[in-house]
Structure formats: structure tokens, C-alpha cells
Write a structure and sequence with these properties.
Radius of gyration: 14 Å
Helix content: over 70%
Oligomer: single chain
Shape: globular
Strand content: under 5%
Number of helices: 6
Order of helices and strands: HHHHHH
Distance between the termini: 43 Å
């Protein structure tokens, strides 16, 4: 059984579990299936908006799809969540990603 199949099985057993949603979304992203990944990251965001790790990856998907404005919004939301969680590492990563998205917006 491949990794994605196993993760989807775990998700079917606990469809609202934050880690399961994140793991499935991340696996789809690693496989290059950005729309599928985005679908699961958006579900995770809806159910668990305080799951800070999702914002970097969701923003990255929008960035890769050249939707720089949406990437910017997601990164900004993630920065807010990271500050609330006092997660300085995630906040720093999101700040760097936001600067990159802003640079692309200016060039675009």
C-alpha cells in the first residue's frame, strides 16, 4: 500500500483530525497534485485555523500557481496565527515567504 493510500485511510477513520488532513495535503503537494493539496489545506484551515503549519504550504501552492495576491493574504493570516501561538519559527518562515510573494507581485 502506498503512502497516500494509507494516509487517506487514516483520514477516512478520522476525517476532521488536523494531522490527518495536513498529512494528506502535504503528500498531495509532494506529488505535485496542487489542486488536491489545496483542497485538503483549505479543509484544514476551515476546521483548524490555528494549525499554523498549513499557512506556509497553502500560501506556497498559491505562489506556485502565480496567484501572488492570494499567497500574500494566506501568509499574512498565517503570521497572525503564528503570533497568537507564539511560534516564532513559523512566524519567521511566513515573513520570508510573504516578502517573496510581495517581490513577485511587484514584478508581475
Amino acid at each position: 500500500m502506498d503512502r497516500l493510500t494509507k494516509l487517506l485511510e487514516f483520514l477516512s477513520q478520522a476525517p476532521k483530525d488536523a494531522f490527518n488532513l495536513y498529512a494528506v495535503a502535504n503528500e498531495y503537494m509532494q506529488q505535485g497534485a496542487l489542486e488536491e493539496a489545496k483542497k485538503y489545506f483549505l479543509q484544514l484551515k476551515e476546521l483548524h485555523p490555528d494549525y499554523v503549519g498549513l499557512y506556509y504550504h497553502l500560501g506556497k501552492i498559491y505562489f506556485l500557481q502565480e496567484n501572488f495576491e492570494q499567497a500574500k493574504l494566506v501568509y499574512e493570516e498565517g503570521i497572525t496565527q503564528a503570533k497568537q501561538a507564539k511560534d516564532l519559527h513559523a512566524e519567521g518562515e511566513l515573513q520570508r515567504a510573504l516578502r517573496q510573494a510581495m517581490d513577485e507581485l511587484e514584478e508581475w
